[in-house]
Fold this protein.
Amino acid sequence: MLKTFKGGIHPPYNKDLTKNKPIEKAVLPKKVTIPMGMHIGAPCEPIVKVGDLVKKGQKIGEAKAFVSAPVHASVSGKVVAVEPRSWPGGGLMMSVVIESDGKDELFEGVVPSKPIEQLTQDEIKNLIREAGITGLGGAGFPTQVKLSVPPEKNIDTIIVNAAECEPYITADHRLLLERPEDVIFGLEAIMKATGVKKSFIGIEDNKPDAIDSISKAIAGKKGIEVVVLATKYPQGGEKQLIKAVTGREVPSGGLPMDVGVIVNNAGTCAAIASALKTGMPLIERITTVTGSGIKEPKNLLIRIGTSLIDIIEQCGGFKGIPGKVLMGGPMMGLAQSELDVPAIKGTSGILVLEKSDVKLFEPSPCIRCARCVDACPINLLPTNLAKFTERGMWAEAENYHALDCIECGCCSYVCPAHIPLTQHIRVAKSHIIALKKKNK
């Protein structure tokens, strides 16, 4: 029986547009805009100034806090601006703008590490930190923080999230097919850094070729096992993945390490492999560019900081009249109001929908059908949380565990009244967090 979790939905997956498209190397951008806060935690401080010449892989933003990750130049060239710029998360973010010189010169400090067998746990974690590696599944949590386990936590399991349950996105799928050895190398580095002897790679059963590819790559290796998961959204959610693979349940307000688990994305593992094998920090990633509004859907290896419009143009541009552009997929992606914003470390996909495919609904009163309750993978009461938001009842929303919401969108998707439940809960979460900060 395939492993899975309670709740969830089965939206149209629409992966056929790109699942058979090999990864293509994107054209070198003429200009990149690199935000200083592409991760959860404290933004970096720029360590370059206007007029400086930089090289590919050179550090340009220093992480001063523990929960942070440095950022690096993705091209060689001249720094033309250090200022707040628009970014995909909305609003402005301090950024470094680099005009490429077209030479793509490598920074002298980018050199391979010692063989993994000669590296200590602390050396591996420090290399991961200095490479600016964060979770590439979208959340952007600094990887070295995940691996720095407090002494009181007993971690016995590593899970590689290769589910890729978000519709349309196939970046990890192609990675598993084309670079399985990098995923496994990165996983082995994580196991050594944490001292964990047991690991699982979770892949949904709609990717049989990826299951076969990874199974061959781990042949003869001890402590690594492929787990075939039922295809269901959000199977790749951290808590849902842990429940499906291990049967353990992360407590309300808790973290995976509270149940002895660390979860890392497949792309993150490959980034670790690149950093250790070549010394190259995280300056590029695989991004799926797809949707009914794209002429030539592709899986592109893009440089961090390339504008979304430049990436779209490399895929033939728009097909028809675009109705919506999202960074990410249709369930958890962020709609973009402008396209001259940069792709960041968490840009797993760029989804363009034609105007005719974008349907707008007027919400109507809740009919108390409880479909949102059945679909919620966290066992919340979305309709109650939405009511609390409408009335500004933030304490009540917190008591009903609004902060546990993973914003997967399942409740909004199944609601027959078309109530934007996820958006209501997101508002409640932001108010609760703001009040907590204010009270501190």
